Amino acid sequence: MSGSNEQQGAPDKVLAGFRKSIDNIDAALVHILAERFRITKAVGEYKAQTELPPADPDREKNQIARLRKLAEDADLDPEFSEKFLRFIIDEVIRHHEKARGQ
């Protein structure tokens, strides 16, 4: 078998099923991230109004440790999960700085 059924013109129903599941998960991730950023936007506005700093290194450290543990428990690479959360945190801080006018 040198080529897949898809390459030969016949649809691969198993692969199509996997891809549909991946597409559904990707859509859910986008919606979850959108909701997360709606909430963190409100946090940034609150921090700006109350003159709190945009970043909270202690919370970030605790969140990263918590996410690494969750990743390990879920059999997901904790290094990947930390990079992913760090990317999100950096973007949130950028939004908070913008809300504060920095």
Automatic annotation (TrEMBL):
What EC number(s) would the UniProt record show? Answer: 5.4.99.5
Asked if the record carries the keyword Isomerase, the reply is yes
The Gene Ontology terms for molecular function here are: chorismate mutase activity
**Which keywords describe this protein according to UniProt?**
Isomerase
Does the keyword field hold Translocase? Answer: no
Q: Record's SUPFAM superfamilies?
A: Chorismate mutase II (SSF48600)
- Mention one GO biological process in which this protein takes part, according to its record: chorismate metabolic process
**Origin, by domain of life?**
Bacteria
Residue ranges of the Chorismate mutase domain? 9-100
What is this protein's record name? chorismate mutase
Record the organism: Croceicoccus pelagius
